[in-house]
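Predict structure. Chain length: 306.
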Amino acid sequence: MNARNYSLTLLALTLAGCVTPTVQNDASKWTIELTSFEPSESSPCRIYDAQHRLMLEGTLASGKMDGTWTSTGSDGTRLATWSYRQGVRHGPVKMWYGALRYPDVGGHLKLEGTFADGEYDGTVTRYYPFGYKHWCVPDDEFIAHPVQFCGQGLTLNERGEYVPLKNLFAHLKAKPSIRQELHTLKAQLKPGEMERSIWLVHQPPTELGMDICGTGEQVGSPAVLEFARVNQPLLGCSGHIHESPYQPGGRWMRRLGRTLWLQPGQMGHRLHYVRVGVSDKGAVEECWHSVLGAAQSRRGDMSRVN
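Prediction complete.
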């Protein structure tokens, strides 16, 4: 959407009928069509690409995007609906997987949420195209997610193209498990290094409030949780379930014994990250989230899980 999100204030509403004004940069060959034949404060508008394929459709108010706008793919399928108020995203938004990039799940809902004055507001629910994204490698008894939207799933070849899998279970089972990978890395440490080590594991541990999907499903790793509990590294950091810190019961930071585990999350356009202060003796002295602020014991962020 970024390439299409330019200001429409350049349009002069005194123009009537179908017009093709000069537009800057990569939009220079687009056709902007006003469907009203009389000057109006509010006018339907369609935007076409160089091949005259519909890209955006909505309404202008005083030259700015207003109300509901629909984005369309080059194959004619709907990709998103956005709500605007005087040129700023405000209101409900929905996105769908495009059939060209995701041929087996085209048309499935991808994301829904709400904007307020240009920023995501409240809970945003993301719908993954393939259930197995929850468990990308074996995690003890968890091999393949029970919900699949595209048969046996897809993988990528060396050219970055999606390739259908013949047998999802066999594909995942052939990979090393999370537990095996963690212990392989642990074997490379020297005595005394574990308590000073920092572990970056994409899959979050379960039970800590860092693995809660928008649907409410918890998909964290028991193996990662056990590894942290038993080995007690200094720090751990995960990602994967971006919305989890914003879900009911969600956390961006928890203590597991001596170990501090982080999951910054990521919602909207404002970068989510965590800053940690560590003393010369290897103790965590401060913990601060770029959006959610400093960790507060009274909120449960600093609470320990034994």
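Summary: The CA atoms of residues 168 and 226 lie 26 Å apart.
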